[in-house]
Amino acid sequence: MEKRVRLRFAPSPTGGLHMGGVRTALFSYLFAKKHGGDFVLRIEDTDQTRYVNGAEEYIINALKWCGIEPNEGVGFGDGPYAPYRQSERKELGIYKKYADQLIASGHAYVAFDTSEELDEMRKRLEAAKVVAPQYNAITRQNMRNALTLPEDEVKKIMDSGAPYVVRLKVPRNEEIRFHDIIRGWVTVNSSQVDDKVLLKSDGMPTYHLAHIVDDIEMKISHAVRGEEWLPSAPSHILIYRYLGLEEDMPKLAHLPLILKPDGNGKLSKRDKSGLPMFPLDWFDERTGEKYVGYKESGFTPDAFINMLALLGWNPGDNREIMSKEELIANFSFERVNKSGAKFDPEKTKWFNQQYLRMQTDEQLADSVMPLLEAKGFKKDKAFVTEFCRLIKEKAHFVTEFYDLGSYFFAAPTSYDEKVMTKKWNENSKTTYSKLTEKLTALDTWTTNSLHDLFAAVEPELGKIDMQVVRVLTTGVAGGAQLFDMLALLGKEEVLTRLNKALASLS
Question: Among this protein's residues, is 269 annotated catalytic?
Fold first, then answer.
């Protein structure tokens, strides 16, 4: 029977969820939904020394904002494989059972080396010009472990309660071959693989054992992660093999890196592109650093996941704007690139601009009104809706609306110097004073009536410079369509501004 499609997103609660992690979750989500499967959130909190308060809640909230919610797991409801936190699963003895099985079959062993002894071993190897010192088939022969110590001494040390770890026994000079959905067949010699720690001295499993046990017990069909985990994959293949579970292991997919805008190295949370690296605001309590989120920067979640989906994947044609439903329908790991994908800040803003333009003016108003109120401007929704219509073509984010059209809410206190120097002369005050009189007499104040009035008065007043009218009423040289702007500001406000400007200009 075909295995049910089940994918997991399994982050560690050691900090905020970086956009690279969101992409891993997104690709897993898309594949699971396309095949009518499950998307599971599992929290891999085996490294308690790096646990950060609030990180788990942040991960859950970020997935909710992105609209890629799991249907099972931490924060999303228990399924048949609860609990979904590894710290809780450890208390059930799940991981030790598998570690003991590996020891019993001769594929793992206990080791008693202290941190000082491990440091000494690395220093010896470095002095011998070994490029990558590691605990492996050669070096373990000179260390304190169950492979070098007499059996009775091993028992005596363990009975004494001395700390120990369980390590994988990697064979010497053996080819390890596995298939990756994205990269095809990968072959690594075991001489490049170290004896990974499987159980730490506190009894907590490491990632290397825990994720394998959980993937098997939770019947995960596909395991998706970043390519930085590729060097560890041979160890994982051996663990599956030694447990007799190689036929049941998930299909592997190692995603390409997200690169810096210049393509030089992996994108990091401290990238200086000017755009966020986290979906939501994140405060790192360890360093005191605050990172601004995509949400708080004015991005829509749909634009964010659309952009992320195209970082390393393509639908096979030239489409760029795709709804979540379209992404689900078209996604496949076969169309994920092997090479890294460059993060493009300008393209990222473009995505948001396209999604912003797809919103109705009323929807935009709902987002903009709280931002205006925070600045002390309370306008009715009809006003803000029309304001959004006039401004949205120039904006990438709703957070830009006020800066682009602040003159709708506050009268100018200065007038564009460049325009006025070039276009204002000794006759201008008379001309625009007469224009103000004509506007005062206008009974119907609409875009069309204003357009008609300006056309009608030119034979009498001479050429009316529209940019000058704009500067007199807004203080700036450019902005929303002039007659629409004047209509929205209203007759009383426009006349007040014109009279104030004319009084201040000679």
Answer: yes
Length of the chain: 506
For residues 8 and 21, what is the distance between their CA atoms, to the nearest angstrom?
Answer: 12
Question: Quick one: average pLDDT of 160-186?
Answer: 96
Comparison of pLDDT for 50 and 329, the residue scoring more: 329
**Which of the 8 DSSP states describes residue 173?**
S
End-to-end CA distance of the chain: 88
Q: Which of 200, 169, 148, 172 is nearest to 103 (CA)?
A: 169
pLDDT computed for residue 132 by the predictor: 85
Between 3.40.50.800, 3.20.20.80, 1.10.3720.10, 1.10.10.350, what CATH number should domain 417-504 receive? 1.10.10.350
Using alpha carbons only, how large is the chain's radius of gyration in Å? 32
**To which residue do tokens 């803000």 refer?**
384
Long-range contacts of 363-372 (CB under 8 A, 24+ apart): 364/388, 364/392, 364/398, 364/401, 367/398, 368/398, 368/401, 368/402, 371/398, 371/399, 371/401, 371/402, 372/402, 372/409
Task: Tell the CATH topology of 1-76+256-358.
Answer: Rossmann fold (3.40.50)
Write down the architecture of domain 361-410 according to CATH.
Orthogonal Bundle (1.10)
The pair of three-digit structure tokens given for residue 208, joined into one six-digit string = 């290397």
Segments in 359-393 forming alpha helices (H) = 361-374, 381-391
263 token code pair? 């393509």
What band does 138 get if pLDDT is binned at 50, 70 and 90? very high
Q: Is the pLDDT of residue 1 over 60?
A: no
User: Which tokens is 34 given?
Assistant: 């396309």
pLDDT in tens, 42-83: 999 988 888 889 999 999 999 999 999 999 999 999 989 999
Strand, coil or helix: 486? helix
pLDDT, residue 50, reads: 85
Rounded average pLDDT over 435-463: 94
Q: Is 166 exposed, middle or buried (0-12, 13-18, 19+ CB in 10 A)?
A: buried
DSSP string, 200-223: -TTSPBPHHHHHHHHHHHTT-SEE
Kindly report the CATH number that applies to the domain delimited by 94-208.
3.90.800.10
Catalytic one of 96, 260, 269, 500: 269
Q: Which pLDDT tens digit goes with each residue over 279-328?
A: 999 998 888 889 999 999 989 999 999 999 999 999 999 999 999 999 99
Token code pair at residue 202: 């506190």
Q: Which residue ranges make up each domain of the chain?
A: 1-76+256-358, 94-208, 361-410, 417-504
Look over the chain and give the mean of its residue pLDDT values, rounded to a whole number: 95
Determine the 3-state secondary structure of 193 from DSSP: coil
